[in-house]
Specification:
single chain; mainly alpha; two-stranded antiparallel ribbon; 7 helices; about 70% helix; about 5% strand
Amino acid sequence: MQLNISIAPEIIFYIKSFPVTNSLIWSVFISGFLILITLIIRFSLKMVPGRLQNCAEILVEESFNFVRSVTGDEERAKKIFPLFCTLFIFILAANLFTFIPGQAAINIKSQAGTISIFRAVMADYGTVLVLTIISVIIIQVAAIMTHGPLGYIGKFLNFQSPLKFFLGLMDIVGEMAKVLSLSFRLFGNIFAGEVLGMVMLSLFPFIAPLPFMFLGVLTAIVQAFVFATLTLVFITLASEIEEDELVEQASI
């Protein structure tokens, strides 16, 4: 059995000059499914919750308690919680939906060969990179809102001493490294799990792939939590006021 392993997603068709890939189709489907479930829960709220509402309430409540425990402030938690919960639920759903049986059998034929219509969303680095850039931009916005534009720039361009100037440049490198660390961790683990599953399925198509599928499900859950939590931690750190800033504010 010949394996077709590609880092880039396969293009299914074009809308004018816009390429529609198999990972984009899967992400649209998952987004629509999550929106539908949200609307069903929203318009069927009851004083005595059913199973679906009960699960949603537990997820929201426990997630908010976790965010509040990390931020240490309820007002700040209310601002960060929607982003954290959205990232976690979308990435978790995108990772777990790849384990639905039978989707690999839905293929189409093209000039490049047989193409699967569905592909793991987080195995497409473009999608992961967009999520990462959104998270990093929000981190910078939180820092600007906390420290002010001048304080934000002064963190990176500090001319008080050569050491502080060097540390400021290292902070710039650190902020840029967040894009790589967040995106490569999520993409690398999901793509590696997808490749490993394909290899094991081609070599041992029955019992042997089961432990690797269980490991893949565990990785899918952990990576969704890690990505959302790291974003939460970075935003919390960016919105904290240091001691020297408190001294300056007190003197004013």
